[in-house]
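Reader question, answered in our methods column.
A reader sent in the components of a multi-part assembly and asked whether the whole thing could be modeled at once rather than chain by chain. We filled in our standard form and ran it. Here is what they sent:
COMPLEX SIZE: two components
ENTRIES:
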Amino acid sequence: MTAAPANPIPASPRSAGQAFRGSASLIDPRTLMRIKGLELRARAIVQGFMSGLHRSPYHGFSVEFTEYRQYTVGDDPRYIDWKLYARSDRLYVKRFEDETNLRCWLLVDNSKSMHFGTVKDDARQSPGIAMPGLWTKADYAATLAATFAYFLSTQRDAAGLVSFDEDIREYLPARYRPGHLRRLMVALERTPEGKGTNLTEPLKRVADLVTKRGIHVLISDLLAPLNGLETHLGYLRSRGHEVMVFHLLDPAELSLAFDDAAMFYDVESQRELYVDPDLIRKQYTQRMGEHLKAIEVICDKQGVDYHRITTDTPLELALFDFLSGRQMIKRTVMRRQGEGRRG
Amino acid sequence: MSFLAPLFLAGIAAVSLPILFHLIRRTPKGRMNFSSLMFLTPSPPRVTSRSRLEHWLLLLLRVLAVILLALAFARPFLWDQAAVEAEQPGAARRVVVLIDTSASMSREDLWSRAVILLKDTAKDLKPTDTLGVFAFDRSVQRLLTFEAWTAAPPGQRLALVDEAIANLKPTQRGTNLGEALVAAADALNELDATGKQSFTGNKQAVLISDVQQGGDLKSLDAYDWPADVTLEVKAVAARKPTNAGVQVVTDRDAVGPQAQQLRLRITNAKASTKDRFQIEVRPLVATAGQAETIDVYVPAGESRVVRVEKSDLFAAGGTITLRGDNAAFDNEAWRIVPPTREVTVIYIGSDPANDVRGLHYYLTNVFLPTSGRTVKLTAVKPGDALDAQTLTRASLIIVGESPSDAQLTSLCSRVEQGATALVVLRENDDGLSLASLLDLGKVDVREANVTDYAMLSQVDFTHALFAPFADPRFSDFTKIRFWKHRTLEMQSLPAELKPHVLARFDDASPALVETTLGQGTCMILASSWAPADGQLALSSKFVPLMNVLLEQSERLPRQAPRIEVGDAVDLSWAVKLAAQRSQALIVTRGTDTTLGLGEDGMLTATDEPGLYTVAIGPELMPFAVALSPGESETSPMTVDEFEKRGVRLFQTASTALIASQADRARQMRMAELENRHKLWRWMLVAALGILALESWLAGYFASRAGSAGEGAGGEATQAS
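And here is the structure of the entire assembly that came back:
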């Protein structure tokens, strides 16, 4: 396997985690992927991440006080701030940012194209992987989703799971309950190989299913026609949801890093095509670049947080991107709310 | 080896495909699963730069299979040498030349031109060809057989033809062109001793004739012209086409003044340029000043019948000559009116001629005179003496009542000499007279018991008496009702009399019986035509029946109304008559040429038209032999007439057509050979076999390469 020459593919626009990327404490994905249990793997990532966090210039988020409101009959007396009552002899009710208000849906693409991988893991033989000993985008997506879920559970936030290919295959509502994380992990582990990718239909269904506001984290290779993607992302956004897109790609997909001519078999459409990579590499990277560019434009337009990750990237970086994205969302929300009040 | 569809051989070019496929080196090594082909485009296969081919054996098998398939589609076959020779354009021909010797060929110089054409045809033949020469007019004559031609050395064959036609010249006979063509086609297709066709090459009939329209083609209508025989018509046309002919119109049934009328039919050929002619009529016995000339106008292609005034002058006969046309051969005709003969019928019975209840009354009305004869009915009462002279002349004697013994004796002797007696059984006693007439002891006759009426049945239509009624339109005899009839015991008639029942009543008793008596005949009618016995006299069948009986009794040969050149004339009656009278019989043509008769009294030497005379002692009986009327129709017929009758014409005009026909024949021959050999089947089987072998070999190689390639694949993975 030879690395692609000068890459025309644009760099990921959100490179906020550059400083973090420089950190030496990152776990090499090759090492990480040797951990068999998804939950263990997720915990390893999160704990590794946490351990490095104190050096981060950013603070985490938690249950935070927002405002006082005068007590009116009918309010729950549990929320009366007795200390303030003592000081001012007035009954005020404390209002918090509801910690269970954060509902995060992990939209994991499980289509056939996700089961492609060229990044090698010598130690394991995964049955779901296209070639033995290689980990696939699906493996990576599952790990990523598990990491997010685990991280959210440590924060007592509700995490839900939507696994889809052409249609929604698995749906776990966003909850924070004992055992929910376990269910979620199991669901991520057992999800079978799906069929073709259809981005629009699952997004539409999710928008219909999820009524409460939350964050939707779409983990997909987005190797499908982009018709309607913008519409449905915009639809989600219009319902008040925050959307983050983790665009997973195999390094070989970016550069068409193959040597030999072969019959290329589309695992989704089951079409076969005789391809000589040397002849068409330039054309391929150009078309791929156009596709990525189109996705970026769509995300940017819809205010969607877009991260492109190749499967050889350490997962902590993705987690960092997730957190920084959330932070930014939070600030945006607060700013908007402040503007609203002033107005 | 040849091919029926050689275009398919272009399919051999397809062998380049397996070779090309073998040259393509960068065959996909395997299948590579990829996430999406969205951004991929197919790459053209690369041809190896190395000239080394891989898998020589497989390539060979594939190329062989393609070649075999192409060959099978091209339908190969092997030429059969014998068949090829038979189909060669220059192959041997068998030719029959039909040369017309009919009367119309005597016009102008047609004959000499025809002879030249015949010789030219013979000269044009190759040494391998066979020639037969037939001459025809109303019959066909083989002048030169194929065998004689083949037997003669090639150098002497033309002399053979000259010899065959040396004494040949046009006759005065009519033309039966159809029969001649049939004879030629049959000769060309004649079978040899083994029942196979003696010759299978090109068969050709050559007709050298003036192809006149009068040539009779009727024989061709019922003939299936063989497909392999072609007809070439070499027509000789008269330079002066005008020809008119004259024929006498005869009406045998005309009676009285009508019979005396002389009517002539003048026909003018279609190609004639003239339409005005003169007819001169002279009495048979030439007397100066009695000739009559008539001007006739007949447009070309039509005919006119003219009536000659003062026909009484020519009542006995006349010579008719037509003038004004170019060809003289058909310009003469003769009219002979045969003398009216008197036939005597004797009726023995006592009833008066005006008694409608008797038999006599009906007999006076039943025998009507014709142009040829008058009938004298003599009634003799039983017991009266029979006039010997009358009896000698009488050919029919009707016995209505029992005659006296004397009458019976003379009657019996007359019948034995050849007369016919019709014995009408009116009473039981009539059996006695019948018995004595037939010289028998007793003939049982008794009155039949008829409850209502009796009808005739089991009529023998094969007998000459009833033959005219054989047609289903006339054969119903059940309308004739008999109130009474007698029953005749057939056992009482001995076999030596050859009794033959001609009709029976519906109770199966005989109604009309014929017996022989000496040279004569005795007819026995078991009823009568008297109204008391039945309705026979009222029936429409009565008059013809009695007239046929009278004709039969006369024993005259039936003569055709018109005798044409070449017809055989039955003169046996004259021979008999001369023998009876012990006088010499001389038959002459014209005035001097004496002709001989055949053993059966037939005159066959009617080779020329004209007046023929039969002289028995001093009595002269002339008759005319006329030219066939068809000979006057000298306009040439078109070749369509032959084609309409299915004759395949030899096309000399269009060589392209001949070539195309030859091509077609060759094509058919090739198709037939190919169909016989069916080599394509074997080639197809061989191709399938090779393909099966190739599949097996390819599978074997692939599995071997696969097992070898797994190790190689592992190494490749390690390397990456």
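What stands out: Chain A touches chain B at residues 1, 112-114, 116, 130-131, 137, 221, 223-224, 250, 253, 258, 260-269, 271-276, 279-280, 283-284, 287-288, 291 (CB under 8 Å). The first strand of chain A starts at residue 65 and ends at 70.
Send us your own complexes using the same form.
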